[in-house]
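Appendix B. Chain record.
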Amino acid sequence: MQMKFSLVLATVGRVDEVARLLESLDAQDYRNFELIVVDQNGDDRLVPLLDLYRRKFPLRHVRSAALGASRARNAGLVLADGDVIAFPDDDCWYPDGLLEQVITVLASHPELDGITGRFTDGDGNVEGRWLENSALLNRYNVWRGAIEFSIFLRRRVVDTVGGFDESLGVGAGTVWGAAEGTDYLLRSLRHGFKLKFLVDMTLHHPVKTADFDASACHRQKKYETGIGRVMRINKYPFWYFPTTCLRTCGGIVLALARGDFLKARFKYLSVLARVRGWRG
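Structure tokens predicted for this chain:
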């Protein structure tokens, strides 16, 4: 029997990006999947688009009045009945053959409880410091081995771990604006589940920190407070947190040495925000 995907999509404020994702799903060779769209818009902007694609593959459209990506994913998880659960962003898209690749890996490696990948913007541009090789994830390398929309988990993981922490992530209403996916993986690891990062599994998503302008700094502060918070609530040893901050401080020094003052400011604000998140 073929394994079934449940793809839980939290969305608000986007239409063209959602259309791109839906088009990429319809282009997949592997067809045993359902898409659960958790719509947090206050209007019907997505209805015509979703009506078009529900003729092409199983699609459920539900509303979530409470904002926040984590809340939306939790609302979708209640409805998900697939063997493999994933959480595409509303501005990501899947390359051709991705679902087939995931199923092939999981079918041939029953010892794995989940896999993760990295992303590019479709033109090969990357964001972040990804692991250089495929590796089993642990509490230290997980930060370089996953992002929410690149996570694919077997059903048993979700049944055991439960929902996302709704105080974390975009739209949560707190200062902790990211790292809810990393928190979920850390909780999974504590339960003893085996998760692996695959360096050759690449999804697509816009790269948003090509420039270090005010918008990028504002977004980064939300991300970093989330990272600091997740490190704290997952009880990392005290030495680990300052080590991560010192690494970023080294980046500040390098940027200043090169005369890249915008990048130096970006990294400085990153450190301050991470400390704020750690302090709670």
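Further analysis of this model is presented in Appendix C.
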